[in-house]
């Protein structure tokens, strides 16, 4: 099975549960405002990696690209004169050079393997952006000082984690840190969850999380996908000379410090 087909089945399963997915896996109002301010009054053409509806309504023209039909059907808010979606692969963008003023992505790099596919994406974005074009990426970054999966699960049972999705990301980053690998099989997050927190009723009572939210971890069980969680310093080390960091901004919601929006400028000299 190719990587693309595997991603399709993983995202097809998640698309069915999308209404239960929340911040920080989806952008909240604070994130959207940071994107909006970073874009400024830009009326240019934006390339949206993925079909994140919260990022599909900025001033200007938006062209989204996603390879998963189930996700497009489930969450894309529809085409009109200023907005359209293309089915395709971010790593082989079907666009001419120097076509876009900005590229936006919410959490999408987590699905790419590090460092090879990050480098492939950066090369594609540098090609399709105009000189001086901006890239705004909300990233999911591991803390420089990793925590253990046992610590995360103890925090959950102590009622110290407000949202299940923040827990899920902390657990995933902890499993990656313990494995000493930026790229981790998504199924290993499920395995750690089952091993450390086998009693969902007890977890729900201790944490206050709804059973339906906890069930959003179920598609991870048989997922053939990998997620990547570099630290900010590892991310910076992967940036090519053509992409210059200009800002790293995050909100104040739970786990926001691990979900910053990084603004890059494309240099073509
Ligand atoms: C944008 S990301 C993360 C979800 C995001 N936080 C949100 O709220 O929309 C998810 C999307 O990336 C898409 N995707 C992942 N890798 C891709 C690739 N190489 N090419 C095109 N689409 C890809 C998946 O199909 C999925 O719809």
Which key terms come to mind for this protein?
single chain; 269 residues; alpha/beta; Rossmann fold; seven-stranded mixed β-sheet; two-stranded antiparallel ribbon; 10 helices; 9 strands; 37% helix; globular; binds S-adenosylmethionine
In words, what does this structure look like?
The strands form two sheets. A seven-stranded mixed β-sheet has the order 3-2-1-4-5-9-8, with helices on both faces. The protein has a two-stranded antiparallel ribbon with strand order 6-7. By secondary structure, the chain is α/β, with parallel strands linked by helices. It starts with a helix and ends with a strand. It folds into two domains: 3-141 and 230-266, 3-Layer(aba) Sandwich (Rossmann fold); 149-225, no CATH class. Helix 5 (149-157) runs antiparallel to helix 6. It is built from ten helices and nine strands. S-adenosylmethionine (SAM) binds next to helix 1.
CATH topology of the largest domain: Rossmann fold
Radius of gyration: 18 Å
- The ordered H/E elements are HHEEHEEHEHHEHHHEHEE
How many distinct helices? 10
Bound molecule kinds, no repeats: S-adenosylmethionine
**What gross morphology would you assign?**
globular
- Which consecutive residue ranges, at least 5 long each, have pLDDT under 50? none
Total domain units: 2
How many β-strand runs? 9
Order of the strands making up the biggest sheet: 3-2-1-4-5-9-8
Sheet-strand content, in percent, reads: 15-25%
CATH class of the largest domain: Alpha Beta
Q: Averaging pLDDT over every residue, what do you get?
A: 94
- Class from secondary-structure proportions: alpha/beta
**CATH architecture label name of the largest domain:** 3-Layer(aba) Sandwich
CATH H-tier superfamily of the largest domain: Vaccinia Virus protein VP39
Termini distance? Answer: 40 Å
């Amino acid at each position: 099975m190719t990587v693309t087909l595997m991603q399709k089945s993983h995202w097809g399963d998640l698309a069915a549960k999308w209404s239960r997915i929340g911040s920080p896996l989806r952008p909240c109002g604070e994130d959207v405002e940071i994107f909006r301010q970073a874009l400024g009054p830009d009326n240019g053409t934006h390339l949206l990696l993925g079909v994140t509806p919260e990022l599909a309504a900025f001033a200007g023209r938006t062209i989204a690209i996603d390879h998963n039909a189930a996700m497009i059907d489930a969450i894309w808010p529809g085409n009109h004169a200023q907005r359209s979606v293309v089915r395709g692969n971010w790593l082989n963008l079907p666009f001419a050079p120097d076509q876009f003023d900005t590229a936006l992505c919410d959490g999408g790099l987590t699905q790419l393997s590090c460092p090879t596919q990050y480098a492939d994406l950066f090369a594609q974005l540098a090609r399709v952006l105009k000189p001086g074009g901006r890239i705004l990426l909300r990233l999911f970054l591991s803390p420089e000082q990793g925590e253990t999966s046992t610590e995360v699960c103890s925090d959950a049972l102590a009622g110290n984690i407000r949202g299940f999705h923040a827990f899920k990301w902390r657990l995933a980053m902890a499993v990656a840190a313990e494995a000493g690998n930026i790229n981790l099989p998504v199924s290993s997050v499920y395995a750690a969850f089952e091993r450390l927190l086998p009693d969902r009723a007890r977890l729900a009572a201790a944490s206050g999380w709804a059973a339906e939210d906890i069930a959003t971890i179920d598609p991870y069980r048989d997922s053939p996908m990998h997620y990547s969680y570099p630290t900010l310093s590892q991310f910076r080390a992967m940036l090519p000379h053509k992409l210059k960091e200009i800002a790293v901004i995050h909100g104040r919601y739970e786990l926001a410090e691990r979900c910053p929006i990084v603004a890059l400028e494309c240099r073509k000299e």
